[in-house]
């Protein structure tokens, strides 16, 4: 008999709200579940380090953050195996050629410097979101970083930037982070708001929906507080980071005039997009979402993808926020249980009803936010001299030149320019390359398509691969915990 | 005047891989009007994603005259296509890990010498170390072909296409050929998107799908669809110039000028040609990783950032099908390159053009006849 430990009914990838909720629910109904996350602690992006954070003053990160702790008890009680520090680099499409004809899905992962393949019957990908790349001239200078990356430092280490700090961009998370920094007593010299003026006109008809949103009151309070205490400069249409080896100043354009601010740190943010690399590499169909201006995997109401046995939950399937992610996780878990024959269809639907209602509530008003905070085209498809692919240092101009040579989409751009072929596998350039090619060709991003990604979706070392254990006993030896 | 010129091509080439593009180029150079029909886009399959190895080393003896003639074209590739295709010639090396393997290499050189070819030679341990300082201590020598090298696949295939277009060839992408009918000495070629094209002559360069074209005209071939895999590492400091393979195991190992290292060599994933898709098999990739671990100790800490596989046609005897159809007039085949057809691209296009415009070629292509599979 082989050790059953590396053989589970369900693997959940990602321990943010979606993954935590999915794993806890699936395991509580008797399925054998493993929850995998590359981070050392559960929580995902929003509840990052919720069990460990040195930020003891609850006011700093706000009550929403601390809700994350409430998801951990049910997970512990459920009996799900929890493997933190496990990076999933491949999820193969299911095969049905095992001895019993049962569906088996092979997952490649690395943990503690060793690689292993895991066999499961269903996978729920809850890989969350990534900050949308915000390419401006100078964004590769030391001192310029994503606002989300800066927030990770705050949550995990209690660190805030020192020196002159400027925030720039658009979207709810930018305001949230500014507010968290205010609470933490950090210095913010200015917020440069790049939300295009005309977005208001487009968003206004969607306002009634937003007025019923659970986020409205919270969001308003937070924004008012930030506006009262910080300098907010609106209608910013162009941005540049300057410095020689390190950031020195930020130049911005407002009403056609350039202004300059000294800065040691520039925090950039204009929204988040689904982290779809794993789903894409697994072969899940995806579509262009015009409202959120991003690619998202195609799913049904339960998060099921075009690949049997692989479902998605949370921001990785389309941006909906933490509460929506949590409920979507539960729906995906119930559907997985049903597909594995653990619960009947009626039972699934019955158990799902309250979660579906909660999901709908959580998504109320989303369309307004998506429309209002659509980033300006100038930042989605930047000017020629701006680097878009940081791994290979490819500029927007080089991408446009490739289009003129006959490059019609991101995959050909890879072959022409090597962009998207570096260690980040397109995470930092994919959305921009799509936008630049679409704009240059004068067609929709839906038509130009997106990178075809391949495992490993996260770099692994040659040593890990060379030592890939062959048998369950080998795996046991390296994965004992 | 232009308005009345017939747009009917003289030759339709099915498949926009390197072989289809090369045939189109050589035909166009002779004033033949060519139309290339490609179901996806040019260089989408094997020709755009291969390892770029330009290798005479270790080839099947039947291929040696062709590979040597192709190498001559590679060394003047800019004259042919107005682009250097990223071709660099730092040699290819097949490492021997034991005296027995070295003996195999000596026998190989003797065989080639008897046939009159001198491009391969055996080197001992010292010379091997001079060529590849990073090689593991246990390696005893190698088979070397100094004129070999590597090029950039996508760029190469595109350069062939560009030059062919500049000479008048036309390319129609996005429509798969579904039917081939011959009436009144004319081929009528139908595509899935509703196109119908006519020409007196057809070239079947459809790569891993070429058996379907052959079957259309009553000429079935035992073609196997394979998915060779490759992986690439993050940049490491430059440490090697030649392309390295092994005698006793499968390997193709090469460093790009930007520092990344390409690792491949014959190991296969799964190919699903109807979906244009391949799936990697990491237990096989790990076999490759172990080979590199053994041969290049300095690579042990390297990071693999990407891997992929391409769809390729393999024939049972591992050599291609080149030449006229055995059942139909005015139909020529060029496929089944069995995972090593990139280097042959420049010459096989010329051979096909020779056959179409002159009825014969000066290179020995009898071993590649499709007739060898006839029942
Ligand atoms: C940088 C950043 C900061 C954010 N901060 C906030 C915030 O403060 N408040 C807020 O309301 N929203 C925030 N968001 C939005 C937010 O992520 C959510 O709405 C919410 O966290 C989504 O939950 P989720 O479960 O879908 O994904 P996440 O919470 O993002 O969880 C995904 C998890 O998957 C793991 N993962 C991904 N790929 C792999 C892999 N290949 N192998 C192993 N593990 C993997 C990640 O480590 C992560 O822990 C932030 C987004 C980003 C990108
Ligand atoms: C990963 C990998 C590594 C390799 N490494 C090397 C190497 O280092 N050195 C070397 O010499 N060789 C190498 N090869 C082999 C080499 O790539 C191939 O032999 C060569 O590219 C074959 O070219 P082709 O034009 O015959 O096929 P392809 O490039 O596959 O072109 C055939 C084209 O025909 C099209 N087509 C098919 N059916 C139809 C239809 N019905 N209608 C219209 N169009 C159609 C396809 O879409 C395709 O684009 C490698 C191959 C792979 C996959």
TrEMBL record, chain A:
Keyword Oxidoreductase assigned: yes
InterPro entries in the cross-refs: BFD-like_2Fe2S-bd_dom, BFD-like_2Fe2S-bd_dom_sf, FAD/NAD-bd_sf, FAD/NAD-binding_dom, Metab_Enz_Cyan_OpOx_G3PDH, Opine_Oxase_asu/HCN_bsu
Record's keyword terms, sorted: Oxidoreductase, Plasmid
Pfam families: Fer2_BFD, Pyr_redox_2
Gene3D superfamilies: BFD-like [2Fe-2S]-binding domain, FAD/NAD(P)-binding domain
Segments forming domain FAD/NAD(P)-binding: 8-329
MF (Gene Ontology): oxidoreductase activity
Record domain BFD-like [2Fe-2S]-binding: where: 387-438
Protein name according to UniProt: FAD/NAD(P)-binding oxidoreductase
UniProtKB/TrEMBL annotation, chain B:
Keyword list, A-Z: Oxidoreductase, Plasmid
Coiled coil: none
Keyword Cytoplasm tagged: no
Annotated InterPro entries: FAD-dep_OxRdtase, FAD/NAD-bd_sf
Origin: domain of life: Bacteria
PANTHER family xrefs: FAD-DEPENDENT OXIDOREDUCTASE DOMAIN-CONTAINING PROTEIN 1, SARCOSINE DEHYDROGENASE-RELATED
Protein name: FAD-dependent oxidoreductase
Organism: Azospirillum humicireducens
């Amino acid at each position: 008999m082989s050790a059953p430990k590396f053989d589970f009914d369900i693997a959940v990838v990602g321990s943010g709200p979606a993954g935590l909720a999915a794993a806890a629910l699936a395991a509580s109904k008797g399925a054998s579940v493993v929850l995998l996350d590359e981070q050392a602690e559960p929580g995902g992006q929003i509840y990052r380090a919720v069990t460990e954070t040195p930020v003891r003053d609850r006011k700093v990160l706000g009550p929403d953050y601390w809700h994350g702790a409430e998801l951990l008890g049910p997970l512990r009680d459920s009996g799900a195996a929890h493997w933190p520090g496990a990076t999933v680099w491949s999820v193969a499409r299911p095969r049905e050629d095992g001895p019993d004809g049962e569906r088996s899905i092979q997952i490649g992962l690395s943990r503690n410097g060793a690689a292993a393949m895991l066999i499961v019957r269903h996978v729920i990908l809850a890989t969350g979101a990534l900050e949308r790349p915000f390419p401006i001239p100078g964004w590769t200078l030391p001192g310029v970083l994503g606002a989300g990356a800066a927030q990770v430092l705050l949550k995990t280490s209690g660190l805030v930037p020192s020196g002159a700090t400027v925030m720039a961009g658009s979207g709810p998370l930018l305001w949230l982070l500014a507010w968290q920094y205010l609470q933490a007593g950090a210095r913010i010299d200015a917020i440069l708001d790049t939300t295009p003026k005309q977005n208001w006109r487009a968003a206004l008809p969607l306002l009634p929906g937003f007025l019923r949103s659970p986020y409205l009151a919270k969001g308003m309070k937070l924004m008012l507080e930030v506006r009262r205490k910080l300098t907010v400069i609106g209608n910013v249409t162009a941005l540049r980071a300057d410095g020689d080896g390190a950031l020195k100043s930020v130049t911005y354009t407002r009403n056609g005039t350039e202004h300059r601010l000294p800065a040691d740190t520039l925090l950039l943010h204009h929204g988040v997009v689904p982290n779809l690399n794993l789903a894409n590499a697994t072969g899940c169909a995806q579509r262009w979402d015009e409202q959120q201006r991003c690619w998202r995997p195609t799913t049904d109401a339960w998060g099921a993808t075009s690949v049997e046995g692989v479902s998605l939950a949370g921001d990785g399937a389309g941006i909906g926020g933490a509460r929506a992610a949590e409920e979507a996780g539960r729906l995906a878990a119930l559907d997985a249980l049903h597909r594995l024959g653990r619960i009947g269809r009626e039972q699934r639907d019955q158990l799902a009803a309250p979660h579906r209602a909660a999901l709908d509530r959580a998504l109320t008003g989303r369309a307004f936010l998506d429309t209002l905070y659509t980033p300006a085209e100038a930042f989605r498809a930047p000017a020629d001299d701006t680097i878009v692919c940081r791994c290979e240092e490819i500029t927007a101009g080089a991408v446009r030149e490739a289009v003129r040579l006959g490059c019609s989409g991101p995959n050909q751009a890879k072959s022409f320019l090597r962009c998207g072929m570096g260690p980040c596998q397109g995470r930092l350039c994919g959305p921009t390359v799509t936008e630049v090619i679409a704009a240059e060709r004068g067609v929709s991003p839906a038509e130009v398509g997106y990178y075809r990604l391949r495992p490993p979706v996260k770099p692994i070392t040659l040593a890990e691969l060379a030592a890939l254990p062959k048998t369950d006993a080998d795996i046991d030896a390296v994965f004992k915990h | 005047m232009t308005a009345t010129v017939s747009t009917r091509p003289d030759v339709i080439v099915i498949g926009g891989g390197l072989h289809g593009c090369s045939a189109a180029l050589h035909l166009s150079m002779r004033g033949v009007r060519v139309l290339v029909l490609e179901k996806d886009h040019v260089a989408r399959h094997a020709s755009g994603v291969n390892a770029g190895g330009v290798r005479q080393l270790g080839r099947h003896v039947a291929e040696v005259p062709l590979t040597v003639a192709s190498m001559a074209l590679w060394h003047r590739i800019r004259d042919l296509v107005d682009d250097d295709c990223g071709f660099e010639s730092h040699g290819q090396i097949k490492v021997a890990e034991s005296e027995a393997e070295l003996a195999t290499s000596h026998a190989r050189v003797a065989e080639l010498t008897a046939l009159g070819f001198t491009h391969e030679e055996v080197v001992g341990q010292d010379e091997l170390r001079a060529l590849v300082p990073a090689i593991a201590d246990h390696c005893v020598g190698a088979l070397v072909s100094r004129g070999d090298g590597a090029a950039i696949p996508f760029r190469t295939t595109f350069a062939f296409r560009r030059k062919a277009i500049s000479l008048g060839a036309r390319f129609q992408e996005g429509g798969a050929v579904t039917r081939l009918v011959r009436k009144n000495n004319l081929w009528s070629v139908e595509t899935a998107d509703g196109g119908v094209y006519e020409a007196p002559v057809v070239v079947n360069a459809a790569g891993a799908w070429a058996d379907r074209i052959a079957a259309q005209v009553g000429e079935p071939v035992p073609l196997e669809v394979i998915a060779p895999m490759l992986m690439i590492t993050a940049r490491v400091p430059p440490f090697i110039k030649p392309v390295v393979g092994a005698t006793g195991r499968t390997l193709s190992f090469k460093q790009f000028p930007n520092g990344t290292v390409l690792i491949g060599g014959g190991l296969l994933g799964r190919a699903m040609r109807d979906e244009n898709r391949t799936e990697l098999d990491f237990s096989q990739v790990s076999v490759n990783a172990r080979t590199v671990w053994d041969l290049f100790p300095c690579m042990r800490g390297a990071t693999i950032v990407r891997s992929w596989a391409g769809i390729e046609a393999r024939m049972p005897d591992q050599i291609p099908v080149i030449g006229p159809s055995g059942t139909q007039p005015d139909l020529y085949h060029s496929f089944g390159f069995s995972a090593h057809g990139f280097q042959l691209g420049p010459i096989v296009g010329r051979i096909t053009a020779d056959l179409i415009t002159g009825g014969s070629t000066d290179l020995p292509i009898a071993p590649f006849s499709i007739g060898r599979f006839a029942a």
